[in-house]
Amino acid sequence: MKKRGKGGIVLMSSLAGGQGCPNLAAYTATKAFNAVLAEGLWKELKPSGIDVIASCPGAISTPNYKEAQKGKPVPGTLTPRQVAESTLKALGRGPIVVPGGFNKFARFLMNRLLSRKAAINFVSDNTKGIS
Predict the structure, then answer these.
(1) Does residue 107 surpass a pLDDT of 70?
(2) In the chain, N or C terminus with fewer CB closer than 10 Å?
(3) pLDDT tens digit string along 84-99?
(4) What's the CA gap between 50 and 5, in Å, rounded?
(5) Structural contact between residues 94 and 53, judged by C-beta atoms closer than 8 angstroms
(6) pTM score over 0.90
(7) Cβ atoms of residues 51 and 4 within 8 Å
(8) Nearest CA to 11 among 45, 29, 37?
């Protein structure tokens, strides 16, 4: 990509990477890592014509997710296609994209309005039974 002077890298993160989450601590930590990595690489590689973006969706209706939720739909759940289209459309617009209007609102709520402790408790209430 550097030789060509253009390219794009997409890292999958998650809204869950915005705060700690009981029962999913390792998962959420890796998602936080991907978001921070994307931010650093975005700035580092921009002069080379390479765009980097972290996609931070909420729930995605994959088979594993559906099984873990036991049929309980979560507000803001998107299809894999919706996440992919939103993410690719956002290339060139900054290091982070949050697909879906509900998810954008949830991120604002969790990161700006609630305290860290309140956000952790909120997520914990919504992920009971998931492992």
Answers:
(1) yes
(2) C
(3) 999 999 999 999 999 9
(4) 7
(5) yes
(6) no
(7) no
(8) 37
